[in-house]
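Protocol step 4 of 6: structure prediction from sequence.
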Amino acid sequence: MSVLFVVVPLALVIVFVALCGYLWAVRSGQMDDLETPGVRVIRDDE
């Protein structure tokens, strides 16, 4: 039972860090263009 006092707060901290990272990526424009990376693989740029 005492392990829950460690694991639950640790899990909440990890979720908070992941959420902050996701929000930072969205606000900085990392997820604006979802189509170009898939097309870039197909293009032949030699």
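Step 5 (inspection) to follow. Helices lie at 4-27, 36-42.
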